[in-house]
């Protein structure tokens, strides 16, 4: 199970190049949601900042219902975070995944035009790809700590975890 609030994203920004630290604003949440995570971006955006924009056009009541219980501050580990640009280590489209101590797995899949890279990423030849083994360990650590069989799925949070988001990914 994962929170998938892409639809409710209004805007966000990674405020510190070289770290996964920043904020996002979601429809249905009055305050900015902040993130301070261990880990890094994939090579396509590592060392740069990113700005996200959203397109939510639904009702406030729907957004409030979906986002109910979403923490205002997230600590934990960065999962896969890429703009889908060359060099493509993961996917050829934007993908933001975090493992939050507060809300578990959170996945955003914005459209390419919703992601702006600010600054110049570290040259790819100077940065190692994110370890697929470490990302798998992050996921299995999350899964082993998740009482998924006991948890009630929040409304709108249904998600088919048997789908592999890494299908078609390039492995180092």
Key attributes of the depicted protein:
alpha+beta; 28% strand; eight-stranded mixed beta sheet; 2 helices; 172 residues
- What is the rounded distance between the termini? 27 Å
For the largest beta-sheet, the strand count, sense and barrel status come to:
8 strands, mixed
Q: Helicity range of the residues?
A: 10-25%
Q: What is the CA-based Rg, rounded?
A: 15 Å
Question: What is the count of structural domains?
Answer: 1
β-sheet strand percentage: 25-35%
Q: Give the total of beta strands.
A: 8
Q: How does the overall form come out from the CA principal axes?
A: globular
The oligomeric state of the chains shown is: single chain
Q: Please, what is the average pLDDT? A: 84
Low-pLDDT residue intervals, each spanning 5 or more residues:
147-172
In the sheet with the most strands, the strands line up as 7-6-5-3-2-1-4-8
Structural class: alpha+beta
H/E order of the elements?
EEEEHEEEEH
User: Counting H and I runs of at least 4 residues, what is the number of helices?
Assistant: 2
Write the layout of secondary structure elements.
Layout: E1 9-14, E2 20-26, E3 33-38, E4 49-53, H1 60-67, E5 73-82, E6 95-100, E7 104-108, E8 115-118, H2 132-145
Parallel strand pairs: 3-5
Antiparallel strand pairs: 1-2, 1-4, 2-3, 4-8, 5-6, 6-7
